[in-house]
Amino acid sequence: MLSFVVFVVTVLLVGGLLFLLAALVLGRGETQPPAEVDRSPVELPDDRRVTAADVRALRIAVTARGYRMAEVDWLLDQFAHTLDERDAEIAALRAELAARREQELPTDPGPGSAEDERSTDA
After folding, report:
1. 71 near 35, Cβ under 8 Å?
2. pTM of structure
3. Phi, psi angle pair for 115, to nearest 5°
């Protein structure tokens, strides 16, 4: 019976020490203060369009449990805004191109006008 009690006490002590060690190493949460909602340390250019090189150069701060959600949410919002702007510009350019093509289409003058043009060229 005494060996069983010693075994249980030993298991509890080892478990407690492992718990304390894990708590010291991992901490009790994020060691950094939470990021501001409207601002992120990750910078994207304001004076020009975002390029693929800008995206590849991004580095998001890593915490003990992964990436900071506020930074990732901010980046996703910025990318969505950029995509919305580009989609709107593409739609406007396509509409402008369709309008120009419509203006350039010749109207059907009738069957005799092609012969009239040939005779005036000669």
Report:
1. yes
2. 0.43
3. -70, -35
